[in-house]
Specification:
- This protein is α+β, with helices and mostly antiparallel strands.
- It has two domains: 88 residues, Alpha-Beta Plaits (2-Layer Sandwich); 138 residues, no CATH class.
- Helices cover 21% and strands 44% of the residues.
- It is built from four helices and 15 strands.
- Strands 11, 12, 13, 14 and 15 form a five-stranded antiparallel β-sheet that branches. Strands 2-3-1-4 form a four-stranded antiparallel β-sheet.
- The longest helix is centred in the N-terminal third of the chain and has 24 residues.
- It is flat, with a radius of gyration of 29 Å.
């Protein structure tokens, strides 16, 4: 082959190779996407998809009750499509979480139904497996550094009566505002859920919110077939614009009455009052203390 023709052939081959590489780069082969190795949080399961869908429908009432503190979007999954699950059934999945993040949602749902469990899986979302998030507790506020302040589960208690169980989940938050005239914020939200234990159905739910953003849950216990909590709170709380506070204590009693939740708060009792010290701090900042 003449030298010129050979060089033209080599050059043409290089151009074809480059063109083919560019085309391959522009149209990559489809993939299933990245997988997540973690803990699958399972509410329930059934032999058929219809059975699992019915269970997910019954779960909605629980999720509505929990929504102020935790938002969860469950999905029905065929177990054969999830690496780590035994094939042959369908599950109502609440979330997929890293191992170090699954304990918080697991504890909440096991308080409602002890049979909730986790399985270690490799989860690869596809058109047949929807993406599942790991839920975070809802944010109450942002702290001085702009980070979210979230609810966390504190105390729990339950009492059973006539085939139903009354569960109390007490959620709390706390944070401190930094800088001059700093103050603390803390409160409690207790969710009461009445559950038909046999049918696993939520009969009713109620919520108790702390009277102020300076509320402490002192105790939550079962006593005489009631769930009794004690809260201590400031009303008004310590704040720079008032500089005085009043401290109160009250009891909240929850019981099952005629198949419904009966929630009663006792008359608050004044236990303390006085100055918060903001006026003295203002004098020091203004140089009056020298």
């Amino acid at each position: 082959m003449p030298g010129g023709a050979r060089e033209a052939g080599i050059l043409g081959g290089l151009l074809l190779a480059l063109a083919g590489g560019a085309a391959a780069a522009e149209t990559p082969a489809p993939t299933a996407g990245p997988g997540l190795e973690g803990e699958l949080l399972v509410w329930s399961g059934g032999k058929t998809r219809a059975e699992a869908e019915s269970q997910r429908e019954g779960l909605k009432a629980y999720l509505n009750a929990l929504d102020p503190v935790l938002h969860v979007k469950p999905e029905v999954l065929e177990s054969a499509r999830v690496e780590g699950l035994k094939p042959g059934f369908f599950v109502v999945a609440l979330a997929v979480c890293p191992k170090n993040q699954v304990d918080a949602p697991l504890e909440i749902f096991q308080e409602l139904y002890p049979d909730v469990y986790t399985r270690s899986v490799k989860y690869v979302p596809t058109h047949e497996l929807p993406a599942l998030d790991c839920p975070e507790m809802e944010s109450v506020a942002s702290d001085s550094e702009g980070e979210p302040v979230r609810w966390s589960l504190g105390k729990t208690a339950s009492v059973a009566q006539g085939g139903t169980t009354l569960v109390a989940l007490a959620f709390t938050y706390s944070w401190e505002e930094q800088g001059d005239f700093a103050r603390s914020y803390f409160s409690v939200k207790t969710l009461y859920l009445l559950i038909d234990s046999k049918a696993r159905r939520l009969v009713e739910s109620q919520s108790y919110d702390g009277p102020s953003d300076a509320t402490t849950l002192e105790s939550l216990q079962t006593k005489d077939h009631q769930l009794v909590s004690s809260v201590k709170y400031g009303d008004p709380p310590c704040a720079p614009d008032t500089d005085t506070f009043q401290g109160w204590r009250a009891q909240v009693k929850a019981s099952i009455a005629k198949g419904q939740i009966k929630l009663v708060q006792s008359k608050p009792r004044l236990i303390d009052q006085g100055s918060c010290g903001y006026a003295d701090e203002a004098k020091m900042i203004g140089g009056e203390g020298h």
